[in-house]
Design brief:
This protein has helices spanning 90-97, 104-109, 212-217, 254-263, 281-292, 299-304, 338-353, 366-378, 388-402, 446-461, 535-550; strands spanning 3-7, 17-22, 29-30, 35-40, 44-49, 54-59, 66-67, 72-78, 123-126, 136-141, 148-149, 154-159, 164-168, 173-178, 185-186, 191-196, 356-364, 408-411, 414-417, 423-425, 427-429, 432-434, 437-438, 475-479, 498-502, 506-511, 516-529. The protein is of the alpha+beta class. The chain binds oxidized coenzyme A.
Length: 557
């Protein structure tokens, strides 16, 4: 088995190009013409093909190395196939291709160096030698009519499926006419642009004639451009199958790649806005801005900070602290009651999954409380006590009717508006929090609501609530008024979208425009799901509720 040095073939005018990607590794079995690595200049990127089939013995270059024509990049143990290589060794090709005699057709395409004296008239800029490539697409137009163009300034970017390159101007001047547009297919010698007032420098680039032999002798895989002196950077495009280990290379011109590399932007993560999702300079800039603004993270950043990586893949919180409490004093352990275990899991889910907001407000219940007390006095003998919560349920139904989204549930991208008004109310029981549901509150009077509530609350305390009596609520009220406190943030009982928390009312001085009046004020805390309800809606709901509680006759309106 012969060891063969694989060298960089003729790559045109490039003195040195950087190795930006290695596509094979020692031990790999490769075919003739298979891409070994990608090299890049500031104008073009190209893949370097293997001239032989065989097994990679040694890589002679690493990422970032500069290589040029003739550099040994790899040692290959040539296989049987090597006996009849698809491509002649590069050194042979070069010899065969070396004579810089122009083919007639190439000569036709050459824009000879323009003497400065003759530079005033229009100058045709043509597509230089682009090697074996035919019909490459214009994917970017980098100048516009009226632009002052310098010699060697890139005019357009063209791309095949194997490489991209920028086509430079062979002269300087003002761009009078652009002869190509996006999507055009171009070939060597095609007229690209007309410049006016050209003053081609003594070193004005001429287009490289493609040696006739090059095309004949070079294998399909070779980089067949053979530029002559003063040739602008052009790259022949290798006609070989790319072999990219992990997915496709991002679509971008060499200058964009260079720019991205300088900024440390991972091109594979940038979404291209150009034709065929090609990444433009603007895309790279936009991506950089987004990362800087914290709108997106690169995969590398996300890997370093998985907690904030998003994607909904869990909260990734710190582990719960494990403390040996006995180190600090005596302790007693008891199992969490069954209801607390169940309600705890529900509360946690609701707390974490719902974007809660709570609006606090006060309702003036001075008259309502007076009415409630007198009603209870009147009904003392019946034994039925009217509670403030019964009024709150009735007032809430009126507000739910006026603001129906509060009586809805989120189901995917839809809101389910309920036509029923079943009100859950939090009940404090020896076993923990339970939420019995008072059905069809809209169809019941205060007395009936008070009575049913009392029965449900008793059942809850006695642990006798049937599952059906805790289901089907469309809105919930949690009243701590009988206990105390001022405002709190209740947790929404999913899949409901709002919950009203009520705290202990107390007499407060309220300004009536002339003087402070003693008024009984009820603190209300309305927590709502911001996916469904907006702050303004919540404020209106609270205000309306306050109006009803302030004057219950409004329920009738
Ligand atoms: N402001 C001031 N006093 C109030 C009041 C309020 N907002 N609400 C009720 N009260 C008074 C009542 O007037 C009653 O006083 P009187 O005995 O002098 O008439 C006293 O507080 C007790 O009321 P109650 O508790 O018997 O009746 P209720 O309708 O207010 O409440 C129930 C019933 C089942 C909701 C209640 O017993 C209960 O369990 N509350 C706790 C709810 C809870 O735990 N919420 C938190 C959930 S989140 O963890």
């Amino acid at each position: 088995m012969a060891l063969v040095d694989i060298t960089i073939p003729d790559i045109g005018d490039f003195d040195e190009v950087s190795v930006i990607e290695l596509l094979v590794k020692p031990g790999d079995t490769i075919k003739a013409d298979q891409s070994l690595m990608t090299v890049e200049s500031d104008k073009a990127s190209m893949e370097i093909p293997s001239s032989h089939a065989g097994v990679v013995k040694e890589l002679k270059v690493k990422l970032g190395d500069k290589v040029k024509q003739g550099s040994v990049v790899l040692v290959l143990e040539a296989g049987a196939a090597a006996a009849a290589p698809a491509a002649a060794p590069v050194s042979e090709q070069k010899q065969a291709a070396a004579p810089a005699t122009s083919s007639p057709s190439a000569t036709k395409t050459v824009a000879d160096p323009v003497p400065a004296a003759a530079a005033a008239g229009p100058v045709e800029v043509r597509v230089p030698d682009i090697g074996d490539f035919k019909d490459v697409a214009v994917i970017e137009v980098l100048v516009k009519v009226g632009d002052a163009v310098k010699a060697e300034q890139s005019l357009v970017t063209v791309e095949s499926d194997k490489a991209s390159m920028e086509i430079p101007s062979s002269a300087s001047g003002v761009l009078k006419e652009l002869k190509v547009k996006l999507g055009d297919k171009i070939n060597v010698g095609d007229l690209l642009a007309i410049l006016e007032g050209s003053a081609a420098p003594a070193t004005a680039p001429a287009l490289a004639p493609a040696p006739a032999q090059a095309a004949a002798a070079a294998p399909a895989a070779s980089l067949a451009s053979t530029p002559v002196e003063r040739v602008p950077p052009t790259a022949a495009l290798p006609a070989h199958e790319p072999s990219v280990p992990s997915g496709q290379l991002p679509h971008a011109s060499p200058s964009v790649r260079k720019f991205a590399r300088e900024l440390g932007v991972p091109l594979g993560e940038v979404k291209g806005s150009g034709p065929k999702d090609r990444i433009t300079l603007d895309d790279v800039q936009g991506f950089t801005k987004s990362v800087m603004a914290g709108d997106v993270r690169t995969q590398a950043q996300a890997a370093k900070a998985p907690a904030a990586s998003g994607g909904g893949a869990g909260l990734d919180l710190l582990p719960w602290p494990k403390v040996d409490f006995t180190k600090f004093g005596a302790v007693e352990r008891k199992d969490l009651p069954r209801i607390k275990k169940i309600s705890g899991a529900n509360l946690l889910r609701n707390y974490v999954m719902i974007p809660h907001v709570t609006n606090h407000d006060d309702a003036d219940i001075t008259e309502l409380e007076a009415f409630r007390v007198s009603t209870n006095k009147e009904n003392e003998k019946s034994g039925l006590k009217v509670t403030m919560l019964a009024f709150l349920i009735k007032a809430s139904v009126a507000a739910l009717k006026k603001f129906p989204e509060f009586n809805s549930s989120l189901d995917g991208d839809q809101l389910v508006y309920k036509q029923y008004y079943n009100i859950g109310f939090a009940a404090d029981t020896p076993n923990g929090l339970m939420v019995p549901v008072l059905r069809d509150a809209d169809k019941k009077g205060i007395m009936q609501i008070s009575q049913e509530m009392g029965e449900l609350a008793k059942k809850a305390r006695d642990g006798k609530l049937a599952p059906a009596e805790m289901q089907g609520a469309s809105f919930t009220i949690s009243s701590l008024g009988g206990i105390g406190g001022r405002y709190f943030t209740p947790i929404i009982n999913a899949p409901e979208v709002a919950i009203l928390g009520v705290s202990k009312s107390q007499m407060e001085p309220v300004w009536d425009g002339k003087a402070f009046q003693p008024r009984l004020m009820l603190p209300m805390s309305l927590a709502w799901d911001h996916r469904v309800i907006d702050g303004a809606g919540a404020a209106r709901f609270n205000a309306y509720l306050g109006q009803i509680l302030g004057d219950f006759r409004r329920v009738l309106l």
